[in-house]
Amino acid sequence: MRLHLFTLLAALSPYALADVEFTSPAAGASVAVGTISVAWKDSGVAPALSTFTSYTLTLIVGGNDATTQLPLTAIEAAGLFTTGNTASGTVAAGLAGPTVNGYFLKMVSTSSDGGTVINYSSRFSMPGMTGTTPAANADAVTALDGATAGPDTVNDVSNAATTAGTAAGGDYAIPYNLQTGLTKYAPMQPVPPTKITQKSFTPLYPTSAVSIATTWLPIASMVTTMTLSQTFSVSSMENTATPVSNPNSDMAKFLRRWQD
After folding, report:
1. How far apart are CA 132 and CA 138, in angstroms?
2. Are 56 and 123 in the same domain?
3. How many angstroms separate the CA atoms of 206 and 162, rounded?
4. pTM of the model as a whole
């Protein structure tokens, strides 16, 4: 029975925990200049893809070390994971040279648990590039000898997620005034509603007893307050309404009277 349960959990784990794994462009592919299409899927590695809210996606040329990487252009400057697992952008031919397997993608994903994860795609070529790659970046690519593996993933979510996850089930549920110790845990701030529907005020927690100090109090023992991260996201869009035309001549004369 235990063996069957372990097998089932192993089969389901890739779907439960995953960050970003790029599926397009493929490793070693030749990508045309102009519109570049990017796709990704669950990698099967924690943290869960569902915990990500937004991302940035950048085209990079150079080596695997951060000091030899040159960002060229943003494929997506403010992407949302709720819109799907694809993105596209435009790459100008003059940004760099036709370095073999010198290009890769960098995605910085923001987690609702706090922190970010940086995933890199495999390397690919862009033979249509007509610019010049700086010597330091080109030399770093040459040193890789045609390898297609991109830089390693950088996970800055683990510590934040572990701390919040451990405390969320217990410490965050305890009213703030009843907590003790060097660290206290504050609940998530509520999101304001779009309409005011409340007719009367109701406190979130019962009132606590207060004793008026008559002598000097000891130094506070609390050192840190951890606040539970928000889990909502926002998006914006361009206003496509036709702008109002300029004032007519009579109105323009009237408005000019007030310019001085």
Report:
1. 9
2. yes
3. 30
4. 0.56
CA atoms within 13 A on the CB side of 9: 6
Question: Is the residue at 94 inside a domain?
Answer: yes
Q: What is the pLDDT tens value at each position of the chain, 260 positions in all? A: 333 433 333 333 333 334 789 999 999 999 999 999 999 988 877 777 778 888 889 999 999 998 899 999 999 988 888 898 999 999 999 999 999 999 999 998 888 766 788 899 999 999 999 999 999 999 999 999 999 999 998 887 754 444 444 444 456 666 666 666 667 777 777 667 677 777 777 776 667 677 888 888 777 665 677 777 766 666 778 888 777 676 667 777 777 777 66
Structure tokens at 256: 């000019």
The reply to whether 113 and 162 lie within a common domain is no
> Residue 50 is encoded by which pair of tokens?
């569902």
183 and 81 in a common domain: no
Cα gap 244→229, rounded to integer Å: 42
Write out the residue range of the structural domain in which residue 21 sits. 13-156
Nearest to 164 by CA among 140, 194, 185: 185
Annotate 58-114 with DSSP letters as a single string.
Answer: EEEEE-SSGGGEEEEEEEEEEEEGGG-SEEEEEE-GGGS---TT-EEEEEEEEETTS
Distance separating alpha carbons of residues 52 and 46, to the nearest angstrom = 11
Query: What are 90's two structure tokens?
Result: 């435009």
Q: How far apart are CA 108 and CA 58, in angstroms?
A: 9
Query: Is 226:164 a contact under the CB 8 Å cutoff?
Result: yes
3-class DSSP assignment, residue 254: helix
Is the same domain home to 114 and 161? no
CB contact at 8 A, 34 and 90: yes
